[in-house]
Design goal:
By secondary structure, this protein is α/β, with parallel strands linked by helices. The chain contains 4 helices and 7 strands. It has a 7-stranded mixed beta sheet.
């Protein structure tokens, strides 16, 4: 599951991290796995707290879904993501409970405008995030989560933190 944490000015919080094997850097949204017995919203609140220190995450709107395989730390990892959009008050992230891997690989955080994400030359996960976010902010949340998976023939070196 991935979280689009948007502040009152529609800036998106992303995590800056590096792959422990290749040292390649990228930016990606807050998120992680759903533990047994958790609802999607409960998992979102837990991940937001663990990775950013945010408490009392407001309920999110399901906006996207994505199937993707990425390379991380020398391994191929297949994910089936559900994306939620949350509006939060802007805050300074201070992780509350990172995994050992996250603690070694997370370099920092930044709030981004959609246009900045569309124009940036740094690696962003997913690659079209700026354009996807601009569409979402213009059109609003879809009635059913939209599939934002890339074509299977496309290979991207992006890596989200893994649990």
């Amino acid at each position: 599951m991935k979280l689009l944490l948007l502040d009152q000015d529609d800036r998106l919080l992303l995590i800056h991290a590096k792959d422990p094997l290749t040292q390649a850097e990228c930016w990606y949204p807050v998120g992680g796995g759903i533990e047994p017995g958790e609802t999607l919203q409960e998992a979102a609140a837990r991940e937001a707290h663990e990775e950013t220190g945010l408490v009392d995450l407001p309920p999110g709107l399901p906006v996207w879904r994505r199937d993707h395989t990425y390379e991380y730390d020398g391994r191929a990892i297949e994910v089936h993501e559900k994306w939620l959009m949350h509006t939060v008050d802007r805050f300074d992230p201070v992780p509350a409970q990172l995994t050992e891997t996250e603690a070694r690989t997370i370099l920092g955080f930044r709030w981004w405008r959609a246009q900045e994400l569309a124009e940036v030359t740094e690696t962003i996960f997913p690659p079209r995030l700026g354009y996807l976010l601009m569409d979402l902010l213009t059109d609003g949340a879809p009635a059913e989560p939209a599939d934002i998976s890339e074509p299977k023939s496309t290979s991207h070196p992006h890596f989200p933190a893994s649990r």
